[in-house]
Amino acid sequence: MSIFAQFGLRKVINASGKMTALGASAVSDEVADALKRAAQDYVDIEEMMEFAGRVIAEYTGAEDGCPTCGAAAGIAISTAAVITGKNLSLIERMPDSEGLRNEIIIQKGQQVHFGASIAQMVRLGGGKVVEIGNANKVEADHIKQAITDRTAALLYVKSHHAVQKGMQSIETMMQIAKEHQIPFIIDAAAEEDFQKYIRMGADIVIYSGGKALEGPTSGLICGKKEWMEACRMQYKGIGRPMKIGKEGVAGLIAALKQYPFKKDNAEEQIERMTRLNTALADVKGLSCSIKQDEAGRAIYRAQIQVDASNAGMTAAELLSRLETGNPAIFLRHHYVNVGILAVDPRPLLEGQEDIIASEIKRILKEVQSS
Ligand SMILES: *Cc1c(COP(=O)(O)O)cnc(C)c1O
Questions:
Q1: Which ligand 1 atom is nearest residue 209's CA?
Q2: Is residue 26 part of a domain?
Q3: Which listed residue, of 24, 158, 293, 335, carries a Cα 20 to 30 Å from 192's Cα?
Q4: pLDDT value for 260
């Protein structure tokens, strides 16, 4: 029995993707085993954090790393690190950074809400957010002209939440940072390539451990050795209320070690989504197909087009019925306004595609026979 069912909570079938609100990732047996073994044992935490830094370095190509409890904590901790360096008195003073070099420059279209606001995470780390340009247009001059002797870092947010057009590129922003000898930070929370931005020359890169990595609730920062040491030292300061435990670190390490060997399971995805579509083939008002991810990633989703006049309900109504049911089924709904729902096979546990098909069938049969 699921532990959540044991608590009396509704069973959730996640077919929408890596959603923090649904518990991000369900980890592999290897990662779960690492969590369990770490939780039942002791370790010298400082030694473990340094070891984790070396593992992060190995898999990201960075000089060093720092485990965190998530990418959001990564933003706060790296902000504090660029303000305080390794000065313990300053570390203990954060988030009060009055009189220090504390300004963090961010492009307006990237000051987004990922479930909480990027700017608030910066402020938690003692940073003063300097938003530049406009929501849909930022010029290189905006960045250059915002730099003062108070600038602590330039922060770039690589995310589907951000405005994609009209922003200055990573390359341009990094070039400006380098010319002014200011650290360049990238929040790459949900990105799949754990080496790309370090290779490009970023000083500090932040990732979530529970998104592409499919690890436990965790995160990581990687980058220049000096900054990573300063990041780890923040656990004596503002990092303390956002600490990652020994089990989280062990799970993060296990997930990193598995990541490069993850097999491309496109065939399995297509097979499962074909099964789902076949089961829905005779349902009135639905037409199902398989669509590859818009961004070209190896994700093959079942796409369910709902013709409301034949189906007896709109895609939005079907979505809502599925989400409020028990089990609660969450589908991807980026195109619900044009009648399209999608099933993401990646987070589905064994056999859940069959449950989704039978629930959809049951709901539609019910309205169609009434
Ligand atoms: C998800 C996300 C975060 C927060 O990541 P957590 O690991 O959940 O803390 C931060 N920034 C961006 C752009 C995100 O998408």
A1: 7
A2: no
A3: 335
A4: 82
